[in-house]
Amino acid sequence: MPDTVNGPDGKPRCGWCAATDDFFPYHDNEWGFPVDDDQRLFEKICLEGFQSGLSWRTILAKRENFRAAFKQFDFNKVAKFSEQDVERLLQDAGIVRHRGKIEAVINNAQRAREMVKLEGSLAAYFWQFEPKESADTAPQSVSTSDVSTAISKDLKKRGWKFVGPTTVYAFMQAMGLINDHVQGCVTRSAVDKARKRFKRPSVR
Q: pTM to 2 decimals?
């Protein structure tokens, strides 16, 4: 995969956008921009869990279906899902019908509610792990890090599921805890500016 590929406007983007034109708007408007909204953070950690063993292209294509199935990833609502809801979702062809992953979302919604009580917000929890910028690691050259491993271990200790180090690293990339756009990508500088403006949430 090349480091960059030209987008519709002829300007270079991260090479993974070459997989499908659907990636360009996601890449330009979402991936890597810092997020402090708990619902979006919960959605992303869940979707990254669903991606395990699959491609993000598959998950992105079904994202609106996932949102409808899981109440827009409002974890206060999802936490109340029952076994009947699990069976219903296993019949939903619009999502990935994997019992373990569906049950993990419901479990993680319950754990998210606990985390908000303890930490104040999901945003406060995740952003306390923001790593210091380092020139030692080239963008998109690794799939895990010491930080993603630490978050994964802590989440599992708290009872979360489908949150391995690779899943957490992809979450960190997407939610802006790091800027992993490649050098030469036109969106990299936009993400840098957004990260500088971003007000980090604090733990309660």
A: 0.96
Report the distance separating Cα 31 and Cα 33, nearest Å.
6
Catalytic residue among 31, 43, 48, 169: 48
Alpha helical stretches, state H, the chain:
23-29, 38-51, 56-61, 63-69, 75-78, 83-90, 99-119, 122-127, 146-157, 165-175, 186-197
DSSP, res 121 = -
pLDDT-derived band at 72, boundaries 50, 70, 90: very high
> How far from the centroid of its chain's Cα atoms is residue 77's Cα?
20
Identify whether 48 is a catalytic site residue.
yes
Single out the catalytic residue among 16, 26, 103, 130.
Answer: 26
User: Residue 93: exposed, middle, or buried by beta-carbon count in 10 A (0-12, 13-18, 19+)?
Assistant: exposed
pLDDT digits (tens, 9 = 90+) for 108-156: 999 999 999 999 999 999 999 999 877 678 999 999 999 999 999 999 9
Mean predicted lDDT score pLDDT of the chain? 96
